[in-house]
Task: structure prediction
Amino acid sequence: MSSLMRFAAKWYQDATAKELRKYGLRYQDILNEWHPDVEVAISRLTPEELSNRNKRIKRAIDLSLKHSELSKEAQMAFDPYQEYLPMERAAKERVERMSYKP
Result:
């Protein structure tokens, strides 16, 4: 990958992380819930993880409607790229199902 692409990718990742931190979201919170892999991954979450996900989304909506954001301390303590959805497993199973021919 060229250095220009690496620079652009790093810039985009940092800009996205900054926006996600403002509202206390993780990257996987903003994935399209109707995508088959995401739908399967969400269905496999534990009740606690699903509750935490829903709370993050509700808090983000509330902050957005109030034109507010999390405190700087709360933003810095938050890692927006921490994964919690089993996306790789869901994608692998979908590919296996698609390739299966009885």
